[in-house]
Amino acid sequence: xxxxxxxxxxxxxxxxxxxxxxxxxxxxxxxxxxxxxxxxxxxxxxxxxxxxxxxxxxxxxxxxxxxxxxxxxxxxxxxxxxxxxxxxxxxxxxxxxxxxxxxxxxxxxxxxxxxxxxxxxxxxxxxxxxxxxxxxxxxxxxxxxxxxxxxxxxxxxxxxxxxxxxxxxxxxxxxxxxxxxxxxxxxxxxxxxxxxxxxxxxxxxxxxxxxxxxxxxxxxxxxxxxxxxxxxxxxxxxxxxxxxxxxxxxxxxxxxxxxxxxxxxxxxxxxxxxxxxxxxxxxxxxxxxxxxxxxxxxxxxxx
Length: 303
Description:
By secondary structure, the chain is of the alpha/beta class. It has a single domain, classed as Alpha-Beta Barrel (TIM Barrel), CATH 3.20.20. 52% of the residues lie in helices and 13% in strands. The chain has helices at 2-10, 13-21, 26-32, 38-50, 67-87, 106-122, 137-148, 165-171, 197-214, 225-238, 255-263, 279-288, 290-300; strands at 54-59, 91-95, 127-129, 155-159, 179-182, 219-221, 246-250, 268-274. It has an 8-stranded parallel barrel with strand order 1-2-3-4-5-6-7-8, surrounded by 6 helices. Strand 7 (246-250), helix 11 and strand 8 form a beta-alpha-beta unit. Mean pLDDT is 88; it is low at 299-303.
C-alpha cells in the first residue's frame, strides 16, 4: 500500500518539481545515485571493487519515445562498456529495454541488445536486462528468449511480486535461465502483483529455491536478511556452493551487510545507478523501504 500511495503522489507535477528543485534533496540523491556522469559511477565501482564487491553499471532513464532516443541510449551504453575495458573495473552492465525502443520497435531493440551483448562479451563481462512495469513483461521475456541461445551469459531480472512470475519461470525451465530475482518496486494493481509483504516474501523464497534448482548462476537481489539467510540455506540444500550464486544489492542501502557477506566469501554485486534521470528511480527506492523514506524526509527538513 505504501508503494502505490507514494508512487501516486510522486507522479504529481508539483511534487516532482518540489523534490527535484529542493536543495536539500541533494544528500538523498547522492546516497542512492553515484552521480550524473559515467565517471561518477566508475569511481563508485572502483571503490566497491577495492572492498571485494562487484558492480552493476546502470544508466538511469527509461521509456524513450523515438528512434533517436533509443540510438542515443545505445551509444551511451557502448561508451560505458568501452570505459569498463579501459579501467578494468569488475562490473556488469544493466539495460532497460524501453530505453532501447522496446515500446515502438521490438526488432530494433533486439538488435541493440545483441550489439551490446557482443561488445560486453568481448571484454569479459555481460549484460543484465532489467524488468520494468507489467505491460512490458511479455515483450521483455520475448527479447530474452530471442537472444538467450546466442548469449547464455545475459541475465534477466524477474520480479517476485508479480503473480505471473512463477509460471513465467516454469516456461523457461528447459533453458536453465540466468536470472536476477528482485521483489519489484513499481506500483501495480492487486490483480497483477501480490501486495502483502508476507506473501511477497513467501513467493520470493519459493522462487529462490526454484532458481537454485533449475537456473544458471542465479542472482538474488534483496536487502532482507531473512531472505538472504533463506538463499544461503537453500543453496546448501541444493548442493550449490558460494560460487554458484550471487547476492546483489542497491547502491547506498545496507552497506554493512554488503561488506559482511563479501568478507565471508559470498559473491556480491552492487547496482550502481548514474545519470540525470534519477527521479523515478529515487521514488521507487523511497516507496519500497520505510527506512529509506525516513532518511529522505529527515534530509528534506534538514534533520
